[in-house]
Amino acid sequence: MVPYLSVPSVPEAAALSFCMLVKNEERDLPGCLDSVRDLACELIVVDTGSTDATPDIATAYGAQVLPFAFEPVDFAAARNHAIDHARGRWILMLDADETLDPAAAPQIQALIAKNEDAGYYLERHNHASDSPISTKDFVVRLFPNLPHYRFRGRVHETISGGRLIQTSIRIQHNFVSSREIRRRKNHWYIEILKEEIAADPTDDTRLDFLAAEYHQLEMFDEATAVCEQIVRMRPKDARAHLFLGTYHLLYQHDPVRARADFLRALQLRPGYPEAASFLQQMDEQARLS
Questions:
Q1: Helix, strand, coil shares of the chain as percentages rounded to 5?
Q2: Do 282 and 166 have their domain in common?
Q3: Nearest 5°: phi and psi at 240?
């Protein structure tokens, strides 16, 4: 029996709305909702087509469940649909396989009390079912409920708005995965990213994600070609030149082009430590050969 969460009205100026997307998440959803039940004043769950008990579980927790047509696939539109229905002054957004650390509640309340026009990166600890090694990254999951904070991107959706500030607030991400599942998702995302790029060839941010998808599939020639395209579109981006240099060096075995990339990165960002380190290693290897 799922515990019922009574969700009060939202009278307070600093009320927090919890928003999420779901599809067939009956296994993980209770843990996620339990982790935020004492923090959020309302729960908004956008369901993109569940065929299991997910909507019933969310309803039992007192959530407002909003069906959402997910064709074509557009994660940003689904997330923005949840935000559009939120009444709180702040939004906290997690995925169903994520949980908020117990120590996070007072930290979030303190940030909300500051009432800044800023979004906040949370520290996500990723635990895959097929690996004993966890990884860490940072994701924007807390932000004001203001019109200029909205997601963009059909996949690998990102939020834009005001300043984005990194915090030490932790969330735990426990997901069932396997190499084959990841590869299918990589290929699925690649096709969607290609559609986005074709629809707006000027949006170079989609190319960053496309290169990453190819890299995960170990399709390094394709990833290199995308990185070359990124540099053509962002010729003054030192980081783009650094990444291209690593591909030319490590995967294309072209030290001449790699050296030019690293030198250009240093020219654009004097003292760039990663570029300087690669050049130093290349010089040392050249002396030993």
A1: 45, 20, 35
A2: no
A3: -65, -40
The two three-digit tokens of residue 264, written as one number? 């250009």
Select from 148, 175, 202 the last residue of a domain.
175
Give me the domain span that covers residue 215: 179-288
Q: Which two tokens stand for residue 31?
A: 């843990």
Strand ordering across the sheet containing 42-47? 64-67, 42-47, 16-22, 90-93, 135-144, 118-128, 163-175, 98-100
End-to-end, the C-alpha distance of the chain in Å comes to 69
Mean pLDDT of successive 10-residue stretches along the chain, which has 289 residues? 40 76 96 94 96 97 96 96 96 96 93 93 90 89 96 94 92 86 94 97 95 97 98 98 98 97 98 97 89
How many domains are there within the chain? Answer: 2
Instruction: Give the whole-angstrom CA distance, residue 289 versus residue 94.
Output: 52
